[in-house]
Queue: 3 jobs
Job 1
Amino acid sequence: MQKRWVDDMLDLYNAAKRLGDDPWAQTIMEALEAGYEASEQNEQTRKQTLLEKRLIEIDARLNLLRKEFEQAESVKSRQQLYEQAIKLQVERAQIEEERKRHHDSINST
């Protein structure tokens, strides 16, 4: 749908240029730019939603690992659970950093 809209708008833009109708061409270009910005905003919102969902999944898994750790009887199983938890905490920190960069980029514009 989005690609077709862009293609149609570019066809109209080219027609306006061929006709020498610069105001119409400018209007079409502004609509294309607005559509691009809206598309970018939608993509950023989608990415943020996915990151937030992943953080919730990580937190839930960390809680389960904590419970499993408390019930683990062997040192080996506790070590494995600990290593899983560390990996999840690293991933969580990376996601938080990415969210912070995104937030900072929004505030700087």
Job 2
Amino acid sequence: MTVERTASPLAAQQPERGFLPVSVLPARGAPGGSGFPARQRPAARRTPALPLLLVDATAALTAAPALPHPLLTAPLLLAVLWLNALAALYRQAAVPAVLDELPALCARITVTWCALAALVAALSPAHAPSARTLLTGCALQTAASCAGRGLVHWRRRRMLVRNPAAALVVGPAATAQRVAAAFLRRPGCGLRPVGVLADDTAGGAGLPVLSTDEEVQRAVVQNGVRAVLLVGLVGEHGALVRELAESGCALWEIDAEMPSYDPPLSPAYEQADRTAYDLSGTATGKGPAPHDGPGSMALAHTGPPAYEPSTSHLFYPRTPRERIAGFPCRRLEVGRRPMSPAKRALDVLVSGALLLLAAPVLLACALVLRISEGPGVVFRQERIGEYGLPFTLLKFRTHRPADEHEAATRWSVAGERDMSRFCRFLRRTSLDELPQLWNVFRGDMSLVGPRPERPYFVAGFSRTYPGYAARHRMRTGITGLAQIQGLRGDTSIEDRARFDNAYIDDWSLWQDICILLRTAAALVRPTGS
């Protein structure tokens, strides 16, 4: 088996507009930071989980007399605390409310009591608790837990009103002023904007616009800033925002966009839903349908757009989306999302087993390609993976580009006319992807994750489609949530980015298993990739 390699060169300059394809904030220690002295760093105010833990423990002890045996008190207590922790019921909510937690509390208390009852019935049927005992215990524990949590949350909300956290709003001046005004009209949200950090100053009347690091340092020290609200791109102030986050400021991403009510056939809708753009922003598709994109992307310039990989990122923690002052928001943290050991174990076990089982198929495909297509049956191409780091992706060669530039910049799809019948069969059945199992086994990729793309297109898509750069918060994969939704080949890039980010935000091991099962089922009705 012979191997050929096609890799796209990375340009040395940075993109002229937009933001870096993957990096949201500059790396630690990058030039241009504010350099806060240690004594001037703002102290973040954090509400510990201890009061809520004590409340739930007290509620479990309150309902313990209803248990058939005192030895069951410890299992009841530990099980409830563990289930509540898994449900993130001890996290710091922006504006806590016991009614929002009531369904989750009731469900976990009920599950715990039913599990204990089943255990007692299995070990000692004579001491099995009655239905009345179960109802009494669940009601007592739920009432005590809700009452205690309600008191804790009430005190927390009063503290937010009396002593709101000073915040800086980062983004375009006009949008930042609008968001700041909305927060100031809602003092109960617990955040009080004191300034706007923007590259432009044309934001109209409102809070002072801070444009230099010295002004930000002065505002932080004088107002005791404890939160940063991101309503757009951080621009050249990325290093300063990173320092604020690392010094203890809470970082919130605020979705300040107003919903669109354009009818489905309006020009605005058609313009937004086109699937293929050249890298200068000109639409090349013929219509608004998600599958009407062309087989190749028109190029507005001769060289590929710049792509500069970085290991510095913001990632979204696995917590539910909240609302503050009516705006959808979520808490961000600086650093890399640690990969779950269970996900990596699943990758190694499944990819290793499939490599052994599919070895005859791999050998047969390589042999037929060698005889029919000539040397170079394995195609090696540079793709962008987790945190924007490049890696070499392996595939069976089904198409021979004219040169390296075409291989790096051509948007190819299944069903091209110059493919042989066997190559089209490999594309249609996704057998050309089998060598990527070795990428998964090595750790370059995962079984499930956003599909990796070439640097040329990553740079262009990141400047054109909001949210595309955030896909690289997790290791790329062979299949993903976007693929099982039919977003393969020449389909909407915007839709892919939305599904990929939804997968990352809601990740769980069970979701990976479901995606793998649905991918296996989809192979029965292949549509190409």
Job 3
Amino acid sequence: MTSHDTQLRSRTDDLAKALDLAGDRLDPEVAARIRTAIEGVRERLALGVDHTVVALAGGTGSGKSSLFNRISRLNFADVGAKRPTTARITACSWSDRATALLDWLEVDPERRIARGSELDGDAEQGLEGLVLLDLPDHDSIEPAHQEVVNRVLPLVDLLVWVVDPQKYADDALHSGYLQKSVGLEASMVVALNQIDTVPTTQRGNLVADMGRLLEEDGLSGVYVTMVSARTGEGLGQVRELLEQAVARRSVAASRVAGELDRAGALLLEETPGEVPWTMSTAVEEEVVAIGEATGLSAVAGQVAAAVRNGYGRPEFAPPQADAVALSRSRWLARAGKALRPGWKRALDEAVAPADRLVEDTQRALSKVSLDTRGPSSARATRTTALVAIGVAVVTGALAILSSLGVLDLDRAIVATFAIVAGVAVLVALGFFLAGIQIRRTLARRREATVLASGRGAVERVVQETMGKPTQTLLDEHRRVRELAQSARDTGKASPLTGPLTLPTAKDLSGLSTDAPSTEDAATREPSA
């Protein structure tokens, strides 16, 4: 096994892991396409890339069967009136070891033929390892024909679209196939057949227009060649192109890489890279919202009042269900803003329902201490203040009675009683004021404690019921994207443009009609 094979298998495994991890959160149609691609790639890699599978595909009347016979130098493929009646693939292999590959491609044994025998000598050596397929018409009125084409196209290594001057712009070809082949340019060629029916002066314009349509389809750099299956004109170039593909050997691997790249791109579309989400900010906002729904601030204020006043039994009421449901909806909208529908659905299922949020919040808040006891020094302070008041009353009364003559006391003693009464009043007042301040300070502390404990309880509920499930899902979303990115082709092969001696589209505009070779003329067939 080559290092390239190992890399392709590793990329395939990454894509499979991503698909398994994503599960039913992907669009079913997209998941099916990715799964089909993985299965096809694994089967193709299991068969090895020693053979290069080239398929001739095209619409009715494009002449691909005649071109197949020309390339193989055999009259094996059905042409003309026979063609529309069969949905079977015809195959010609330049190898005697392609049986397993042809079985995988589901080519009927009677529709297979092999070249490259000793009788051919070196004439076919350049195509050794080639497996050439002639597919049914993709635009046939028979649904079975199109089904075969759709099944085989993802399995081939090099796809040659055979088009004719009349139908090369057919929408069934462009919208049905070419536009869906973006990313596979390195494994695609367009052959303009029946070029003998086009005036020499118009051929360059035809090639240029075909190139323009390909660009509009999103395909860049696809090689367009001209050929005539009837006259053999340009056939040598087509065979040279196939020889180049076989010699490169990387065409098969490029096709596999292209399939992985396309499947990875599909998966990346299902997992957008930018997920605007900051857990801490979202948690903080919803803690505040749910705290308001529970009346947390009001209960904390009631605790403070009870501490200040010395009476009251505050308690948490059940959270407002509508407010909690709104908080959950806001959470889902923010976390799922950039997610595809399947992931949004999974997020909704992962996050706890609103009724559980209400229950968990109420249970968590019931454990928050609502301590309304006064300060521990309250009794001593009150007792001291009352004693001071008693002293003030007694000494003040004695001083007043002496001043009224009711009691006959020494003037110095009366003055002393008056002073003691005044001091006692001040002491009592001081202790009363100190008691009030101590209660107020304690009330503020208890209020802050209830707020902090309540918010902590609510935060734990938010984290457990919404935060952790969301983070787990987003982590899986990121992991799926990372695996999909690693499955993509980082070093795409250049589109197949033929050997250096082949002309470009620009060069073709100045070409005159080529004369067919003697060998090609010997196998000349009627135009299809």
